[in-house]
Write a structure and sequence with these properties.
Oligomer: single chain
CATH topology: Rossmann fold
Number of strands: 9
Number of helices: 5
Mean pLDDT: 95
Structural class: alpha/beta
Strand content: 25-35%
Number of domains: 1
Helix content: 25-40%
C-alpha cells in the first residue's frame, strides 16, 4: 500500500468506523490519525491494519478493532498530566496512543516477546514516556503505586477488585467483563478512598486475560 492509499485507508477508518461508534473527542481522533497503526500490526496482516476486525497476535492474542481502541481511549477521558497503567501491552499500539494522551504510561504483559517488540516499535517512533515490564497482572495490581487511569486490554470473565485500589481518587478504570458471546465494557471511577462508581458503557467481546479469575463452575 503506497503512502497515499495508506492515508486514505486511515481516513476511512476514522470516518467510517470510529466516528460512527460515537467517538467524537477531538484529542482522541487526532492521536489516532497521527499514530501509524500499520507499524504496530504483524507484518503478515499489515494490509488489514485499518480493517474493522481483531488482528491476530502470537500466543492466541489479538489487537482490538480500531473502533474499540478508540472507545477505550475516549472513555478514560485522559488528561495530559495523567499517569496511566496498561494491562496487556500486546502490539504496543494502544500504549503509543495512551502515551500521546497522557504524561506517563506503565504497560505490562506476561509475554516477553510482546514487550520486546513493543519497545522496538515505540522507540522507532520516538515515544519515550512508556515503561514496559514483563508481568502477569491478570489478578490485579499488587504494589502501592496509584494511577489516574487504568486500561485493561483483555476481558475479565468476572469483575474482581484487583485494580480498584490502584486508582487515585478521581481515577478511571476501563475493563471489559463477562464471557462470550456478549461482554460489557465498564468504566469504574474512584470517587473517594472507600468508594467507587460503576458505569456500563457498551457490549462487545474480546479474549480474556490469561489467568484471570473465572466464574465458579455450576454444580448440581
Amino acid at each position: 500500500m503506497n503512502a497515499m492509499n495508506t492515508e486514505r485507508a486511515r481516513f476511512n477508518m476514522i470516518e467510517q468506523q470510529i466516528r460512527p461508534w460515537d467517538v467524537l473527542d477531538d484529542r482522541v481522533l487526532a492521536v489516532i490519525a497521527a499514530t501509524p497503526r500499520e507499524d504496530f500490526v504483524p507484518e503478515q496482516y499489515r494490509n488489514l491494519a485499518f480493517s474493522d476486525i481483531s488482528i491476530p497476535l502470537a500466543h492466541d492474542q489479538a489487537m482490538m478493532p480500531p473502533k474499540l481502541e478508540a472507545r477505550l481511549l475516549q472513555s478514560l477521558e485522559l488528561n495530559p498530566d495523567d499517569d496511566i497503567l496498561e494491562i496487556g501491552t500486546g502490539s504496543g499500539y494502544l500504549s503509543a496512543c495512551l502515551a500521546r494522551l497522557g504524561a506517563r504510561v506503565h504497560s505490562v504483559d506476561r509475554f516477553e516477546d510482546f514487550v520486546d517488540t513493543a519497545r522496538a516499535r515505540l522507540d522507532a517512533h520516538a515515544i519515550g514516556n512508556v515503561t514496559l515490564e514483563v508481568r502477569n497482572a491478570a489478578t490485579g495490581w499488587q504494589d502501592e503505586r496509584r494511577f489516574d487511569a487504568i486500561a485493561v486490554t483483555g476481558s475479565l470473565p468476572v469483575l474482581h477488585r484487583g485494580f480498584h485500589e490502584a486508582l487515585s481518587v478521581g481515577g478511571r478504570l476501563f475493563v471489559i467483563v463477562g464471557t462470550p458471546p456478549v461482554m460489557e465494557a465498564m468504566l469504574i471511577t474512584r470517587s473517594s478512598e472507600t468508594e467507587w462508581c460503576q458505569t456500563r458503557l457498551f457490549e462487545t467481546s474480546v479474549p480474556p486475560l490469561i489467568d484471570a479469575p473465572r466464574p465458579d463452575a455450576f454444580r448440581f
